[in-house]
């Protein structure tokens, strides 16, 4: 599983957890080649309400975790705290199931430039597999292919629709 896949899996597992204050810890220096990761982190912060904590080194990560632990100890010693058991939290946070065809299809879609995870989910809701999309492209003329996604999936821009059309046209002509 690549960096993007691991990030998506971790984010989904955190979203399923009952915790209200979630921190996504990112260790390491900013690398321009990973600009897409930076965009994904910003999106996670805004859309899912995560706090993003950056550290440069394992030592700095350990210091952050120690400070956080001390803060939690101090906070919880002053008041009665209730919540779910550790075992229940583990159960909620574990991998839910094996990947479905749709899960794999969404990850395949996200390889396309301009295809966010949200858009990929929308496309997969309309076309549940690559075979379903290929079938749809095979049923429309070349003049309609460029706008297929734009008309079938709300929110998909024309440029992305055209890009996908070119890819699937090349698959069909091969």
TrEMBL record:
UniProt superkingdom: Eukaryota
The keyword Nuclease appears for this protein: yes
Key words, A-Z: DNA damage, DNA recombination, DNA repair, Endonuclease, Hydrolase, Magnesium, Metal-binding, Nuclease, Nucleus
Location(s) in or outside the cell: Nucleus
Keyword Hydrolase in record: yes
Coiled-coil blocks: none
Main location, first listed in the record: nucleus
Cofactor(s) it depends on: Mg(2+)
First-level EC class: hydrolase
PANTHER family associated with the record: CLASS II CROSSOVER JUNCTION ENDONUCLEASE MUS81 (PTHR13451), CROSSOVER JUNCTION ENDONUCLEASE MUS81 (PTHR13451:SF0)
Family, similarity comment: Belongs to the XPF family.
The protein's name in its UniProt record: Crossover junction endonuclease MUS81
Organism: Ancylostoma ceylanicum
């Amino acid at each position: 599983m690549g960096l993007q896949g691991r990030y998506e899996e971790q984010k989904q597992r955190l979203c399923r957890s009952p915790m209200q204050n979630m921190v996504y810890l990112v260790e390491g220096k900013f690398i321009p080649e990973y600009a897409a990761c930076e965009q994904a982190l910003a999106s996670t912060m805004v859309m899912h309400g995560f706090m993003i904590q950056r550290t440069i080194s394992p030592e700095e990560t350990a210091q952050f975790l120690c400070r956080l632990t001390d803060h939690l100890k101090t906070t919880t010693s002053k008041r009665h705290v209730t919540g779910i058991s550790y075992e229940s939290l583990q159960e909620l946070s574990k991998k839910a199931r094996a990947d479905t065809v749709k899960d794999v299809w969404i990850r395949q879609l996200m390889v396309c430039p301009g295809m966010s995870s949200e858009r990929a989910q929308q496309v997969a809701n309309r076309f549940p597999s690559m075979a379903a999309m290929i079938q749809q492209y095979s049923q429309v003329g070349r003049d309609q292919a460029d706008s297929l996604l734009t008309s079938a999936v709300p929110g998909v821009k024309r440029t992305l629709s055209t890009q996908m059309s070119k890819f699937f046209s090349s698959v069909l002509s091969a």
